[in-house]
C-alpha cells in the first residue's frame, strides 16, 4: 500500500493554502495557529519540499506548493462529493444551490428540466435569500451573486448583465405613449426597498424629470412582481425575467429604456469546489443556458 502523508497535515496545508493565513486556517480547523504551523512543517519534512515561502508573518505558496495545493483541494473535493453521494440516494450526488428568489422563480426553475435530463445523477437542493452565502459556514455548493464578478477566493461564472426595464400590465405601454414620457410619473411606482434608487436612475436614463406621485414599497422583488401582475402599478425588473410573461401576454415592457450599470449576475463557488464534477456540470450547464437565452 502506498504511504500517504499524515491526513491532519494535509488538511492543515490545504486550509492554509486556501486562506493564505495560519490564523484563519486555525479558526476553520478549531485548533491553534501554532498547531497548524506545526502540521505544515511536518508535511514539508515528510515530502522534503518547501511548500511556502515565509517572509515575516506572511506565507506565500512556492510553485511546487501551488501545484500540490490544487491537487490536494481536488482530492478533498472528491472525498466530499463521495460522502454526499453515500448519504444521498444510491447512485446520486446532492448539489446545494442558493440564489435570489426572483432569479429562481423567473429564470432558473423554468429551465431545470433540461438540467435533470442531462444529469439525472445530480439531485439539486435549492434555497433562496438576499444575503450572500458564507461558503465556510453554510452547506452550499454554488450561489448566485450580483456584482462586478470579482470575489476573493471564489470562481465566478458570468450569467447575464444587469439590465433593468420598466414593466406593467398589458396595455400600459400604449396608454403612456399617448400622453408623452412624463405620463409615467402619474403611475403608481412599485419599489423594491433593498434597491430604492433603481427608479431614480432609470428615470434619469430615460431623460424624464420629476418624481412619481404614488409609491408602493416591498422588501422582496417577488412581491414587486406580484403587485405588478395584480395591476397595482409598474415595476422594474431584469429584462431576461420578462420573456415568458411577454410571450404569454401577461405583462409587457412599457418603455424601450434599459438601465445598465456595469454589474451582473454570476454563479459563484469556492475555487476548490469548482473542481468537483457535479459543480462543474452545473456551472457549465447554467452558463450554456444563459448564453442560449441571448440568441
UniProtKB/TrEMBL annotation:
<dbReference type="InterPro" id="IPR000847">
    <property type="entry name" value="LysR_HTH_N"/>
</dbReference>
<keyword id="KW-0805">Transcription regulation</keyword>
<dbReference type="InterPro" id="IPR005119">
    <property type="entry name" value="LysR_subst-bd"/>
</dbReference>
<comment type="similarity">
    <text>Belongs to the LysR transcriptional regulatory family.</text>
</comment>
<dbReference type="InterPro" id="IPR058163">
    <property type="entry name" value="LysR-type_TF_proteobact-type"/>
</dbReference>
<dbReference type="InterPro" id="IPR036388">
    <property type="entry name" value="WH-like_DNA-bd_sf"/>
</dbReference>
<dbReference type="Pfam" id="PF00126">
    <property type="entry name" value="HTH_1"/>
</dbReference>
<dbReference type="InterPro" id="IPR036390">
    <property type="entry name" value="WH_DNA-bd_sf"/>
</dbReference>
<keyword id="KW-0804">Transcription</keyword>
<dbReference type="Pfam" id="PF03466">
    <property type="entry name" value="LysR_substrate"/>
</dbReference>
<protein>
    <submittedName>
        <fullName>LysR family transcriptional regulator</fullName>
    </submittedName>
</protein>
<feature type="domain" description="HTH lysR-type">
    <location>
        <begin position="5"/>
        <end position="62"/>
    </location>
</feature>
<keyword id="KW-0238">DNA-binding</keyword>
